[in-house]
Specification:
NmrA-like domain-containing protein; NmrA-like; NmrA-type_oxidoreductase; NAD(P)-bd_dom_sf; 7-stranded parallel sheet; 11 helices; globular; alpha/beta; 38% helix; Rossmann fold; UDP-galactose 4-epimerase, domain 1; 316 residues; 16% strand
Length: 316
């Protein structure tokens, strides 16, 4: 069958693609890479993969983008918005089904426990709506798998007021404070390395490719997470060990948090910061704390510990 990844040039999509070709050993000629900049995928095209243009923000570009494709790995629109993110996801799903796609692997986010969440952070709203839309489309000719991808180990700056390991190591200060609207206590987060999430996703897709009829996650949800949770205090302690300085969480009010420029990377918007602050309330409710063995199972090994990942990031 033919397998498509859209968008194929981003961080998670790129990792999934690399492992689909090199780890899962899927025939490159059966892989369709849809990207708004297909010229950036020359290396993959030279390996035999098919490249096509497709842009979330240009619905017309999706006409024909999924022709001949049996299964699509749909990765969410790279934005923090809610309504627009849902709108373009639905358009991509509709385009895929109209062109004959039989199964969608939707890369969602592990920021909501299975079942009805007790608290929904802004960042999860579009994912939950897209998941519900996929569920509503199930038919004898269409199915889905929702992959709730664990919070990236590498994404720590957005949960730590833009804390930076390299800057922390270079700082003359011996004690560094991370001021966020959270006291650092659990429930925690089972951080997961992005490349390993891509590898596990590739192996999951390859399993479906080998035998769709016996695939265990038809119309189901799977969590890819680390095998252990770390509270934000635990995470700060690992920062301390990594940079050899005392790093600690200092709780502050949401109002004090949102007016600080730069607490969300690349943002100077109080409103964006306020929407992002809902993530800390969700962490407090345990919405990011789900732990499963699925990442380990689909890697065939223990996931990389966050201590190792942070050390590599500091050295890189």
């Amino acid at each position: 069958m033919k397998i498509a990844i859209f968008p194929a040039a981003g961080g998670l999509g790129g990792a999934t693609l690399s492992h689909l070709l090199h780890t899962a050993k899927v025939d490159p000629s059966s892989v369709v890479l849809v990207s708004r900049s297909p010229d950036k995928l020359d290396k993959e095209a030279n390996s035999g993969a098919i490249t096509r243009k497709g842009d979330f923000d240009d619905p017309d570009s999706l006409k024909g983008a999924f022709e001949g494709v049996d299964a699509l790995n749909l990765i969410s629109y790279p934005s923090f918005q809610h309504e627009h993110r849902v709108k373009v996801a639905k358009a991509a799903i509709d385009a895929a089904i109209s062109q004959g796609v039989k199964h969608v692997f939707y890369s969602s986010l592990a920021f909501a426990r299975e079942g009805e969440p007790t608290y929904k952070p802004h960042v999860m709203l579009a994912h939950l709506d897209t998941e519900a839309y996929l569920e509503s489309l199930v038919s004898p000719t269409f199915s889905y798998t929702i992959i709730r991808q664990g919070l990236y180990t590498e994404s720590y700056p957005i949960y730590t007021a833009n804390f930076n390991l390299k800057e922390a190591q270079a700082s003359a200060d011996k004690e560094l404070k991370i001021r966020i609207p959270h006291d650092g206590r659990g429930p925690g987060i089972p951080w997961a390395k992005r490349d390993e999430l891509g590898e596990a996703t590739a192996n999951l897709i390859a399993e479906y490719d080998r035998d769709p009829n016996s695939f265990a996650f038809i119309n189901k949800l799977i969590f890819f997470t680390g095998t252990k949770t770390h509270s934000l205090n635990d995470t700060a302690a690992i920062f301390s060990k990594t940079v050899e300085k005392n790093v600690r969480i200092e709780s502050q009010s949401v109002e004090d948090y949102v007016v600080r420029i730069g607490v969300v990377p690349k943002s100077d918007s109080v409103e964006l910061n306020r929407r992002w602050a809902t993530a800390f309330e969700a962490i407090r409710h345990g919405e990011a704390s789900t732990v499963t063995s699925h990442l380990k199972d689909y890697l065939g090994r223990e996931p990389e510990g966050i201590e190792v990942t942070y050390r590599k990031m500091l050295q890189g």
